[in-house]
Specification:
The structure holds 2 protein chains of 2 kinds.
Chain A (H helix, E strand, L loop, with lengths): L1 E3 L4 E3 L2 E3 L7 H10 L3 E2 L5 H6 L2 E2 L6 H11 L7 H13 L8 H33 L5 H66 L1 H10 L4 E4 L4 E4 L1 H11 L6 E4 L6 H8 L3 E3 L1
Parallel strand pairs in A: 3-9, 5-8, 8-9
Antiparallel strand pairs in A: 1-2, 1-4, 6-7
Chain B lengths: L1 E5 L2 H13 L4 E4 L3 E4 L3 H14 L3 E5 L5 H4 L2 H11 L8 H5 L7 H6 L3
Antiparallel strand pairs in B: 1-3, 1-4, 2-3
Classes of the chains: A alpha/beta, B alpha+beta.
Chain lengths: 272, 112
């Protein structure tokens, strides 16, 4: 790797930046983006463990699974996982939104009920006037107008209900697609977990050796590939198990020098 | 009651959380669906879920089914007679053919 600082260039498999005022996160970002650190692209192992800081707490099994993949190992469910992911990516369920249609039905229904009541009320007034030999003239006109309006609103309500029925029918297909998506998401999750189990178990032995080889407290527990102890130890052991080309950022006091760390971890390192 | 069905992992998780913190309003929980009490609180929970997850949440209103009020006698009798049939392998269409029990086609076309 080649690290271009403002006033000098540092090169090699082990580069110390402990004399510089840079944070582990800044250096890890530079490794990803390649702006002032020229190196191979980091991978899944880096995502899981780099930078290794004193308060790091990597999830050991997923990190170990990534390390196993970096060594070229595969799991028996990889093909099924790729298929499920591809199928999932191809699903794009259409939106479901009946809110406007529901509102239209409710509003038409309310107006219809109000007009119904108005027509009945006018009918009562006309009857009362007729009983007293009064002139129902205005009330009769009003009632005729209300009846016309009622018939319009009724037509609108029926149309609104039909539109909502159509929308609900169309939503069925959209919900089928969402059903399929949910089932695939569950499948992907289960397959990923199965792949992780398989891969981490496949490197359980090298991991146990690595835990013993790197400095720090910790031991393998809950076999295969479980860990109990200092998380920094686990992170370092994962790096030692992994085959990484891009530098791992170390911000922990476990090694005398960057070169010693690179030797023990068998990986390019940047110490900060 | 209000039937709430979810169609994504996130919506399903929110429904689970809502069910655990509002047990009094939840009549029954299924995997990714639940029945809420038909109260305004039930409606609030259902609407909050829909607000958060849009089309990934379906809300329906359900009613108890009373076969004596809601289904015709012919349907009740056909169900009872079919479940008491002699040969378990006889499919319903064959069972109903030539009897007074309604055919599946007729049943399909008639709304309750």
């Amino acid at each position: 790797m080649r690290v271009e600082l403002a006033d000098e260039v540092r090169e090699g498999r082990a580069v110390a930046l402990r004399d510089r005022d840079v944070s582990p996160e800044t250096v890890a970002a530079a490794v990803r983006e390649g702006e002032w650190i020229d190196c191979p692209e980091p991978g899944a192992v880096h995502e899981r463990v780099s930078p290794v800081t004193a308060d790091a707490s990597p999830s050991v099994r997923p990190a170990l699974a990534a390390a196993a993949r970096s060594r070229g190992l595969t799991s028996p469910v990889d093909d099924a996982l790729a298929d499920a992911r591809a199928e999932l990516a191809a699903i794009d369920p259409p939106p479901i939104d009946h809110e406007a249609a529901r509102k239209r039905v409710a509003e038409a229904g309310e107006r219809e009920a109000a007009l119904d009541e108005r027509v009945a009320e006018l009918r009562g007034r006309i009857d009362a006037l007729a009983g007293r030999d009064g002139e129902p003239g205005d009330a009769t006109d009003e009632r005729a107008a209300a009846i016309r309006e009622l018939s319009e609103v009724r037509t609108e309500r029926v149309a609104a209900e039909q539109a909502l029925r159509d929308a609900r029918e169309a939503a069925r297909a959209a919900r089928d697609a969402r059903d399929r998506r949910l089932r695939l998401e569950d499948r992907v999750r289960n397959l990923r977990s199965a792949a992780r189990e398989h891969l981490s178990a496949a490197v359980a032995e090298p991991f146990a050796d690595a835990v013993a080889a790197v400095p720090g407290e910790g031991r393998v527990a809950d076999e295969p590939a479980g860990f109990e102890g200092d998380p920094v130890t686990a992170a370092l052991a994962v790096v030692r198990v992994a085959a990484v080309d891009a530098p791992v950022v170390l911000a922990c006091d476990r090694f005398d020098s960057a070169a010693a760390a690179a030797d023990t971890l068998d990986a390019p390192v940047l110490t900060v | 009651m209000l039937l709430v069905v979810t169609y994504s992992q996130a919506a399903r998780q929110t429904l689970r959380n809502a069910c655990s913190s509002h047990e009094g309003t939840v009549v029954r929980r299924f995997g990714r669906a639940a029945l809420f009490e038909e109260t305004e609180l039930g409606a609030l929970l259902a609407l909050r879920l829909r607000e958060k997850h849009g089309g990934d949440v379906q809300v329906e209103r359900t009613e108890p089914f009373n076969e004596f009020a809601d289904a015709p006698a012919a349907v009740r009798e056909a169900a009872a007679a079919y479940e008491a049939r002699d040969a378990p392998s006889t499919p319903y269409p064959k069972f109903a053919a030539g009897t007074e029990h309604p055919s599946p086609e007729r049943l399909r076309d008639r709304e309750l």
